[in-house]
Amino acid sequence: MGVHFGGQSRGDEMLRRARQGDREARDALLRDFMPFILRVASQVRGRYIRTGEDEEVSVGLLAFNEAIDAYVPDRGAFLSFAQSVITRRLIDHHRRRKKDPAVPLSELEREEGSDRAGPTVLDLAAAAVWSAREQDEARREEISELAAALAAFGIRFNDLPKHCPRHRDARERAIRMAAALAADREMARQLQATGVLPLAALAARTGAAKKTLERHRRYIIAVALIFIHEREWPELQSYLRPAGGGERGSRP
User: Fold this and answer.
1) I need a labelling partner for 195 at 20 to 30 A (CA). Which of 110, 121, 139, 154 fits?
2) CATH class for domain 10-98?
3) What is the arithmetic mean of pLDDT over 215-237?
């Protein structure tokens, strides 16, 4: 089966038949590309996804099925489009889950009419563990979302450390440049619409040399995305506030 669905292959034929209403062809695509769906879901989730255990499998299958119907053949490879649809649907799924967190057991026990005057040491310890786990989970989800967003720019999240400025002063300048970009609606729009760092506009806004901006391009894009999505990624924001210093978007 052609991996890219871009030529005369069994994959192209099955996709064509599925889009025309052939249920068997659709089921065959979903079955044959289950490994692909699991791989994309695992990348978004930041851990290995297993069938029969993780609900992301169902979300990924539904998204792949949606991609079959929404795909426009003359706009690129099908699997690239399907990966984008699966990623977006999983991110939406995780955001909905964060809005409806579970309630700690100790809270439920108190609501059952317990006559204790206040929380015990065990309650406090359990609450601390719960809070830490929730924070870790939120951080992992935000990192997965950032990794998916960076992929659209051709940037691998795992490669960011080697693109991070080595010296603290240079790193803080890059963060301020990213903040200035995010604070400018037109530059932020251009970045997300084109996938290209607006070097000329950012240089004019910050006074930085284009050569410097280009050298730290990947890092600036990553940080700018975190600032742009400040409401969705509060955990990632917390890493930037101490280093950024001063008002966001201020001129370096």
Assistant:
1) 139
2) mainly alpha
3) 89
Nearest to residue 20, comparing CAs of 69, 65, 67?
69
Q: Which residues of 171-184 are buried (b: 16+ CB within 10 A; e: fewer)?
A: bbbbbbbbbbbbbb
Give yes or no for a contact between 26 and 16, defined as CB atoms under 8 angstroms apart: no
Residue given tokens 């809070």 in the structure block: 131
pLDDT tens digit sequence for 113-134: 444 444 444 444 444 444 555 5
User: Where are the domain boundaries for CATH 1.10.1740 in the chain?
Assistant: 10-98
Structural contact between residues 46 and 144, judged by C-beta atoms closer than 8 angstroms: yes
Residues 181, 174: Cα–Cα separation, whole Å = 11
Binning pLDDT at 50, 70 and 90, where does residue 145 land?
A: confident
The one-letter amino acid at 49: I
Q: Are 181 and 187 in contact (CB under 8 A)?
A: yes
Q: How many residues does the chain have?
A: 252
d(CA 56, CA 37): 10
Nearest Cα to Cα of residue 64 among 109, 28, 117, 111? 28
CA 55-61-67 angle, to 5 degrees, is 140
For the segment 167-180, the average pLDDT, to the nearest whole number, is 90
First to last CA, the chain: 53
Instruction: Please report where in the chains the tokens 């450390």 appear, as a residue.
Output: 161
**Backbone phi and psi for residue 119, each to the nearest 5 degrees, phi listed first:** -65, 145
Take residue 169 and report the two structure tokens written for it.
Answer: 């002063």
Q: Tokens 């530059």 map to which residue?
A: 187
- Mean pLDDT (the chain, rounded): 77
202 within 8 A of 208, measured Cβ to Cβ: yes
